Amino acid sequence: MSCKLWLALLVGILLPFSDAGRQMPKLADKKLCADSECSHPILIARALQDYYPGDCRFIPIRQGQLIYVYAMLKDRGNMFWAGSVQDSYYGQQEARIGHFPSSVVEETHPLMPATTEVKTDKWDFYCY
Asked: Is the pTM for the entire model greater than 0.90?
């Protein structure tokens, strides 16, 4: 068999087992943000411990990293926040927004009040 055929066969077998490119279950129906688009960070937090995500909705966090928090999930998902990790060297890590447990971080710098309630949509929990 040619290399292209093997590659196509391998991708066809493994892709259905990947989380990429599919809708994942919602963690919550609402979230609190600083604005209606959740585009402004609410606060900066520092990771108290390492966090290894269970699936693609979540971001990995290393102890000591700074996280810009953009949303706090409400109701059944109130233990999770959404944000992006900032490494010690800007550009060292690709910026990616994802969820993480609020229990693994401590608030260090409040930036804006999280007073705007926003409904979550399917893109909040979509795996790319």
From this structure: no
